[in-house]
Amino acid sequence: MPVSRRHQAIFVHIPKNAGESVERTLGIYGGNPAETAWGIIGNNVVLQHYTALELRDNFCTAEVWDRYFKFAIVRNPWSKAVSEYNWYLKYGPSVSFSEWAQSLPHRLKINRTIHIFEVGHNVEQYKYICDAEGALLVDHLLRFEDLRNAFAELSTARHWHVKLEHAPTTSSPNQISFKDYYDVETAKLIGAIYARDVQLFGYSYEETFAGTTLSETPVAIDAFFDPDLYLKYNKDVKAAGVDPRQHYLDHGIKEGRRIR
């Protein structure tokens, strides 16, 4: 549960925005009963990413909500979408980024109808931190793009005396720019789906893709694959003597194997 007694803080964890790093830093990751307001239920529930509205109305007393410092991390929607896609590939079908993006409106519509947020993933960021009228419910927003510096400044200002930890379980071994996943149509689609996040948090299509030449056609699922590098970084595949590309498509994508 994202409430730290020690730091008198409520952290609204928006998926794929480095929330685990903050939770580990504040000692509230995994429902640490010594630090969280509700003991061990924390991250053991399916919908672990509670919205600010849910926390305020269902879990926090008015006194705690008013007194504790409330904050969240926001992220460039185009960057976040790629992170969500790579998370999806671990559990869903192996589809291209373009195909995944095209399915988003339908999945979001279903989620809203049956009140299931796919463990909180893909939902617009503003829904985590605003009420039904659009009013911001947290005291402070950090940007993912400058998180280390921003969190250090916040820690100093709040006298937390902590340094942001790195969450090893959320890192990708492949350093590929999120911009490389986009073609023109998909970039516009993501911008339209998350238009309110783009506007509310001060991002823009033009600034995001400035100096970038986007593909006119969808980027293939194996566009970043290099067979020689795959065999170099995955010794077991080389030893097995199997076709590296086929292994990547059948197993490597879901396993998050290194490809460069």
TrEMBL record:
GO CC aspect terms: membrane
Chain segments annotated as transmembrane: none
Chain segments annotated as coiled-coil in the UniProt record: none
Keyword flag Transferase: yes
Pfam families (UniProt xref): Sulfotransfer_2
Protein name: Sulfotransferase family protein
Keyword set, alphabetical order: Transferase
MF-aspect GO terms: sulfotransferase activity
SUPFAM superfamilies reported in the protein's UniProt record: P-loop containing nucleoside triphosphate hydrolases
InterPro entries for this protein: P-loop_NTPase, Sulfotransferase
Top-level division of the source organism's lineage: Bacteria
